[in-house]
Write a structure and sequence with these properties.
The structure holds two protein chains of two kinds. Chain A is globular and about 55 Å long. Helix content of chain A is 72%, strand content 0%. Chain A has one domain. Chain A is mostly helical. The longest helix of chain A is centred in the middle third of the chain and has 29 residues, at 90-118. In chain A, helix 4 (51-68) runs antiparallel to helix 6 and helix 4 packs antiparallel against helix 8 (152-176). Chain B is mainly α. Chain B has one domain. The chains are: A mainly alpha, B mainly alpha. Chain A binds chain B through residues 25, 65, 69, 72, 74-75, 77, 149, 151-154, 156-157, 160, 164, 168, 172-173, 176, 231, 233-234, and chain B through 14, 17-20, 23, 27, 38, 41, 89, 92-93, 96-97, 100, 104, 107-108, 191-193, 196-197, 199-200.
């Protein structure tokens, strides 16, 4: 009896399909952009410090775009079939997110290590701290935007709007509204105290986690995923 | 003509129902009013026209500066900056959201049905393009009215003639071009996902055309009141007006050429696909 129950709940991950559905093109673009930036830094070591700023801009933007393309109910070719599989629907998101994290995160981590090795006095934790919290934030929010709007266009638009907004925020909005330091992606760690910087990073993590929690919660509502009550027009 | 208008009417309705149009209209409104809120504050701190005019004594005030309402002129010049920022914001949205128009027919498996209808390639592509343009124009009219009122509250008095000229000249050509790029070039895509990816690739191309719009169309106000040449960093006067007319003509020519090439590529692709 115990054995039967254990077998019944041992759900299988469809990794091969998930990697195919996730796609590698955007990860390749991230890698190419960051690698090119590292090469430029190598050619001129005076520019090496600003390499980390490039990491902060490129990784969250492309991770956000990639996350938006992961799962949109209206754009999924065989949604009914996928939902009919004998496992929780949340696995659909979990395995694609896992594939994306492995591709984008692995590449970003490898290039961060390379950047630290090439730059004197650089700290790996600092480099990761530049790009990881904004990436978590944008991935969570964009996945939620795509899932709730049912279409990947909205997620992509959210990713671009967030990145452009945050770039403007750092340069224009922050000097006017200094109290918004806690939510800006590209905040300069030199103008904040270490505690404020920590709060900023934690806030971004939390915002992303809330986005992801909403996504996982929504994935359990199969009727909504199938679009009952929605206008059937694409 | 009836077939064309039927495609246009149906597509506008579908874009409204799948929330593409309202999102674009909201984006335009948020872009314009959001940047107005930002610039209004900067403008209060550094009133550019006031400073420039104060440097001129009564004796050497140029002809174009005589009888100028400084407050009105300052606020209206700020409009140029607002419109540039709003235009960029809007064009990004248009490039991304318009691409799905034709791929959706394939994704929803109605393309085969459409192929059985007696409509030509040009009618099909033209109908899709005109519907995209129609929805955008409708939004620009509605959002224009609401934005004009909102801007009055945010930045204060401004010249409504200049606002109307900027709204039409700065938004219409680049929006039409971005929508044409997106609708026609994404016609090769078989799904909305592919269309989004093509839209992302198109975005830098569209931004190149946006940079052409800034020094040309943003100066259209100077053709109504010479002082507004200041908005694109030209010295007001007849020379500036001639330069602006020249720039606008050149930009329109480039846009027209780009549109014709895009149409040609999409038409050629559709023809090739049908003969396969």
């Amino acid at each position: 009896m115990t054995q039967t129950l254990t077998q019944k709940h041992r759900w299988i991950f469809a990794w091969k399909f998930s990697f195919r559905a996730t796609g590698w093109l955007l990860a390749l673009i991230t890698g190419a952009l960051l690698f090119a930036r590292l090469m430029i830094a190598l050619a001129n070591m005076e520019l090496a410090e600003s390499t980390f700023a490039s990491f902060e801009v490129v990784i969250p933007l492309i991770a956000g775009l990639h996350a938006s393309l992961l799962f949109a109910p209206d754009d999924e070719p065989a949604l009914e079939l996928l939902l009919a599989a004998p496992r929780p629907p949340v696995y659909l998101i979990l395995e694609r997110l896992g594939a994306m994290v492995a591709l984008q995160g692995g590449l970003a981590l490898a290039l961060s290590v390379l950047a630290v090795l090439l730059t004197q006095g650089a700290n790996l934790f600092d480099v990761i701290n530049h790009w990881l919290p904004p990436s978590v934030c944008i991935v969570g929010l964009c996945m939620a935007a795509t899932l709730f709007a049912r279409r990947m266009t909205f997620g992509v638009l959210a990713a671009i709007t967030l990145c452009v907004g945050m770039a403007i925020g750092a340069e224009v909005i922050l000097p006017m509204f200094p109290d918004l330091w806690f939510m800006v992606f590209y905040v300069n760690s030199n103008i904040l105290t270490s505690e404020q910087y920590l709060v900023n990073r934690l806030f971004l993590f939390t915002a992303g986690a809330v986005g992801l929690a909403l996504v996982f919660y929504r994935m359990n509502d199969i009727e909504n995923l199938l679009g009952f009550g929605e206008v059937k027009n694409g | 003509m009836t077939k064309l208008s039927a495609i246009v009417r149906y597509e506008v309705l579908m874009a409204w129902r799948r929330r593409s149009l309202p999102i674009l209209w909201i984006l335009l409104f948020a872009g314009v009013v959001g940047f107005a809120l930002l610039i209004a504050d900067v403008n209060r701190q550094t009133p550019a026209v006031e400073n420039a005019l104060q440097q001129n004594t009564a004796a050497n005030v140029p002809e174009w500066a005589q009888g100028i309402d400084v407050l009105l002129a300052t606020h209206t010049i700020a409009l140029v900056q607002i419109m540039i920022a709003g235009m960029v914001f809007y064009v990004i949205g248009v490039t991304l959201m318009s691409g799905e128009t034709i791929p959706l027919d394939r994704q929803l498996k109605v393309r085969e049905l459409l192929d059985t209808l007696p409509i030509s390639r040009a009618q099909y592509l033209g109908g899709k393009l005109l519907s995209g343009w129609g929805g955008l124009v409708l939004g620009m009219v509605l959002v224009g009215i609401v934005a004009a009122l909102a801007l009055r509250l945010v930045i204060g008095v401004y010249d409504l003639r200049i606002f109307s000229a900027l709204w039409v000249a700065m938004l219409l050509p680049i929006t039409f071009l971005a929508a044409a790029f997106s609708i026609l070039l994404c016609s090769a895509a078989g799904s909305r996902r592919a269309a989004v990816l093509i839209g992302l690739v198109l975005m830098p191309v569209v931004m190149v055309f946006v940079t052409l719009a800034v020094p040309s169309f943003a100066g259209i106000g100077a053709l109504i009141e010479p002082i507004y040449a200041v908005g694109i960093l030209l010295m007001p006067g007849d020379e500036a007006n001639a330069e602006i007319v020249n720039r606008i003509s050149n930009t329109l020519l480039v846009y027209g050429l780009a549109l014709a090439v895009t149409w040609g590529v999409a038409w050629w692709y559709a023809r090739r696909r049908e003969t396969r």
